[in-house]
Amino acid sequence: MFERSKITQACEQFALRLQRTIGDSRVIDDPDILEQYATDKSHCEGVFPHLAVRARNEQEIAAVLRLASEYGVPVVPRGAGTGKSGGAIPFYGGVVLDTTRLKSIVEIDKENLLAVVQPGVITGEFQAQMESEGLFYPPDPNSLESCTLGGNVAHNAGGPRAFKYGVTREYVLGVRAALMGGELISPGKRTVKGVAGYDVTALMVGSEGTLGVFTEITLKLVRTPTELSTLLIPMPSEEAAGMAIAKIVAGGLVPRVLEFMDGVVVDVLRQKGIAGVSKSTHALILAEIDGNSEMHVEREVLQLAELCENSGAEEIFVAKHGGDREKLWAARRVMSDALAETAKHKVSEDIVVPRSEAPRLLAGLKKISKHYGVSVPSYGHAGDGNYHVNVLWDDDGFEPSAVVRDIFELTLSLRGTITGEHGVGLSKKPYLPLEQSANLIGVQQAIKRALDPSGLLNPGKIFTE
Ligand SMILES: Cc1cc2nc3c(=O)[nH]c(=O)nc-3n(C[C@H](O)[C@H](O)[C@H](O)COP(=O)(O)OP(=O)(O)OC[C@H]3O[C@@H](n4cnc5c(N)ncnc54)[C@H](O)[C@@H]3O)c2cc1C
């Protein structure tokens, strides 16, 4: 849709005007820095941007969008670049608009349980700050030490605690966003209720940097639970683990974390000497129960343990305090890197199926693995039916797209979705039409055109042209 040579030409005038507007030093054209903006944590290949701006305030963001619109330059919003679907990588070049310098917590309103933040605040730092105030911001993507709240909202990030507390969307009360052209809008509210007009906030959440650039976000908070217990449960088989998880959910227990790791993952963890992974372990469950009553949490821990024992668990590790809890999390924390070390190549998808379909999903993945002769281990947020399915292979000539397509087709046949957390971005856009009808994609493209008629904001993402 955009020719690189035309963007190069447009960028010359654009850069001059931008330098005059926000200052020479604010417009980056150093190739070493631009190179960093051509990748994220996905396997997608992007192109170098022509320019980058590390915005310091809302005025600079609006100026970039206004001038880029005038000169026809694509703009790629970017947070910390931890995205796994290529959302923050330029597809056509243009200017990367880095919002990580906007990192203030603008307001903490304890009485109304909300905070107003800038988009570059690191998620983990925000959580720590809230906890020091006796408040709790539950969404916990595993990248929380490095990712930004702006990136989380743009991808509607989830995490292990989503089973009980929900994903980022549930905590976004409002945003302030700059549109392509530089106009500012502030959809949302500071109240619990509020139904005036269309829910534009909801539209902005998960829009992957294609509808607007967040300059401020209003987040809902909850009170910090006082009691917390972590359980690591080695299981004798994947089926036994599946049965235990089904019983936990059906039994009405709502642990804040309910994670599953399959047999292949367990083998890798065993080789690494991770605690709790004995010879007879062929799947793992990691669970956390929290609440405000010690008696209540202890009762639920016992119930959960009993359900797992009835499904075949012989040993259950329980911890209540920081260091001990971290030891039980070790398996989950090292797993992704440990898997990557077992093969030359790895792609990882984040599919979701209705919880009741998990056994059929796991059986189907085994068939796919056998059919293609590649390892397809999976782990994930079993409580949500959200599985990280990996394809691992050594042969440099092997092309994994057929395996990935089969995984998505299996997922959709079980009435699931191709992405639960990471977004469509570049990596999944060829597969979106497998899940969504042409009419539904058309509605989304019409919304995109209404907000960004020239298609300059994060072009090449989500939809194939
Ligand atoms: C080790 C690891 C673990 C991960 N675990 C999880 C997990 O558990 N759950 C999960 O959901 N994800 C996870 N991720 C993926 C990733 O961390 C999340 O998608 C995260 O929300 C991206 O934040 P970011 O600041 O890095 O954004 P980026 O990668 O920089 O950008 C992501 C998207 O947001 C847009 N964007 C960024 N800032 C803005 C802004 N200010 N305004 C508008 N759009 C913007 C970009 O255009 C892009 O489309 C993981 C990634 C890694 C590497």
Provide structural commentary.
There is one protein chain. The chain is an alpha+beta fold. It contains 15 helices and 18 strands. It has helices at residues 4-22, 31-36, 58-71, 123-132, 149-155, 162-165, 200-204, 238-250, 263-271, 294-310, 322-340, 358-372, 401-413, 432-435, 438-451, and strands spanning 27-28, 51-54, 75-78, 95-98, 105-109, 114-117, 135-136, 172-178, 184-185, 213-220, 222-223, 227-235, 257-261, 283-291, 317-319, 345-352, 378-381, 386-393. The strands form 4 sheets. The chain has a 7-stranded antiparallel beta sheet, with helices on both faces. Helix 1 runs antiparallel to helix 3 and helix 12 (358-372) runs antiparallel to helix 13 (401-413). The longest helix has 19 residues, at 4-22. The protein is globular, with a radius of gyration of 23 Å. The structure holds flavin-adenine dinucleotide.
What is the highest CATH level, the class of the largest domain? Alpha Beta
Q: Supply the CATH superfamily name of the largest domain.
A: FAD-linked oxidase, cap domain/gating helix
Question: How are strands sequenced across the largest beta sheet?
Answer: 15-12-14-13-17-18-16
Largest sheet: 7 strands, antiparallel
CATH architecture label of the largest domain: 3-Layer(aba) Sandwich
Poorly predicted parts: none
Strand tally is 18
List the total number of helices. Answer: 15
Estimate the strand proportion. Answer: 15-25%
Question: How much is the average pLDDT?
Answer: 95
CATH topology of the largest domain: Vanillyl-alcohol Oxidase, Chain A, domain 3
Helix content: 25-40%
Structural class, by secondary structure, is: alpha+beta
Distance between the termini: 8 Å
